[in-house]
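Bump. Still looking for Helix-turn-helix protein C-alpha cells.
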Amino acid sequence: MNLRPEQCRAARGLLDWTQDQLATAAGVSRSTVRDFECHRHELQRTTEMLVMKALEEAGVRFLSANREGPGVRLKKPAAPGRAP
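Sorry for the wait, here they are.
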C-alpha cells in the first residue's frame, strides 16, 4: 500500500498529533513529514513503512482504495476487560 499525503494528514488528525509528534514516533525528521504532506516529495519505501508503523501502533487503520478512494480510521478499541 502506498501512503498518500492526505491519508497521513487525516491519520494525524484522528490522533490529534502534530507533525513533530509523528516524526518523533516514526524516527524521521519533521521536514520529511512536512514535505511529504505538502506534496513536495514522495517518501522512500523504508520511511513510508516507519511512518505507517508509527501511526498503526497508535491506533490508525489504513483503508485501501476502493470506489470511494483510500482512507483511514481508528481501530475499534478492545472491549473492557478483554485483552487486545
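Helices lie at 5-15, 19-26, 30-37, 45-57.

Edit: fixed formatting.
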